[in-house]
Amino acid sequence: MTRTIQQLFDLTGKTALITGGSRGLGLQLAHALGEAGAKVLISSRKAADLEEACAELQAAGIDARWVAADCAKESEIHRLADETLQRLGDVDILVNNAGASWGAPAEDHPLDAWDKVMNLNVRGYFLLSQIIAKKSMIPRKTGRIINLASIAGLNGNPPAMQTIAYNTSKGAVINFTRALAAEWGKYNITVNAVCPGFFPSKMTAGLLQAMGEENLAAAAPLKRLGDDEDLKGLCVLYASDAGKHITGQWLAVDGGVSVVTGA
């Protein structure tokens, strides 16, 4: 029997792990999945931030819990996966969102800062996906992986940005998404990416100040920055049976910025 659209988007009975979930885009995604019915576990480095975010989610009626972990470190990723599986059972939805950025001219970019960005934004995505898939998704032949990329991974920097490591990492995330989707389709695991444009957050605060929020909004066809709702719909589409035939794809959620910049 064909399901209704409400049934296709319903995540009741599903479990989701969201890294970088204590604030900003990650917290928005946790709200989206929880509001659609999923149990959620959020992770980031700081327990105090996680406690506050978890209380916010629970106040909204969401079954939420947290684990503090640094997804730039292999041992911490293994611990996060093990604790999540112990507390939630199998993971149906993995959202790789934890990320870092660094601003410096390419000719002077510190190597340790390059490694910091790559370890969290690329290596961390790969390792957590590998562990969760091997321990939970592949044996059950089902799973949804959602990777947070960025429109910064679609083309070069505007000259004022000077974020070569970040842009490189997000370009890698897009192709990581394609490659993983091609390999893991046989296990009924979908892998897709979200490419946000400019959203106000702690990570983007300095950039928004330097480039001017009004200027960035004016450059978008929709004449605004992203808000606290704009990633929710795409996240639930990727995570639910409404998107079960979508894999290896990315979609920009940027108010049309990538249209006018030629990505």
Task: Kindly describe this structure.
The chain has one domain (5-253): NAD(P)-binding Rossmann-like Domain (Rossmann fold, 3-Layer(aba) Sandwich). 47% of the residues lie in helices and 14% in strands. The protein has helices at residues 5-9, 24-35, 47-59, 74-88, 111-140, 164-184, 205-211, 213-219, 232-239, 257-261, and strands at 15-19, 39-44, 64-68, 93-96, 143-148, 189-196, 250-253. The protein has a seven-stranded parallel sheet, sandwiched between helices. Strand 2, helix 3 and strand 3 form a beta-alpha-beta unit. Helix 2 (24-35) packs across helix 9 (232-239), helix 4 (74-88) runs parallel beside helix 5 and helix 5 runs parallel beside helix 6. It is globular and about 50 Å long. It starts with a helix and ends with a helix.
Write the SSE topology:
Layout: H1 5-9, E1 15-19, H2 24-35, E2 39-44, H3 47-59, E3 64-68, H4 74-88, E4 93-96, H5 111-140, E5 143-148, H6 164-184, E6 189-196, H7 205-211, H8 213-219, H9 232-239, E7 250-253, H10 257-261
Parallel strand pairs: 1-2, 1-4, 2-3, 4-5, 5-6, 6-7
